[in-house]
Amino acid sequence: MPIEVGAVLEGTVKNITNFGAFVQLPDGKTGLVHISEVADIYVKDIRDHLKENDKVRVKVLSVDDGGKISLSIKRAVEKKKSGPMEYDRGRKQENFQSFEDRLAKFLKDSEEKQQQLKKHHESRGGRGNTRVKSFEY
Length: 137
Prior knowledge:
Layout: E1 8-16, E2 20-24, E3 30-34, E4 55-63, E5 69-72, E6 85-86, E7 93-94, H1 99-123
Parallel strand pairs: 3-5
Antiparallel strand pairs: 1-2, 1-4, 2-3, 4-5, 6-7
């Protein structure tokens, strides 16, 4: 049975590298899940998310003329509107903030830091070095 693009299959992680994981599919073929396709968050070390012999659900992204199969774990998982995100392994559950929440927190923290810098600067004499050299002609 040929592998169809868009199909969601269950496979087994056979090998992990720094750039991704090789997953054996039910028909015996092997595809690659690139590190950027493991999770919706930034993945620094793929071994924090996967280990060899893990059973994972993958979505087939592409099959090239040479038979190379590109897979995704994050696209095989149904997206939830809110709440914790669950990984297939069931080990990790983390609450993720929306972009808007993270942006609001960043702006608040930035404003607080600006205020602290301003107070510190003013306590040290205001606008900096005010000495002016006079020149005689």
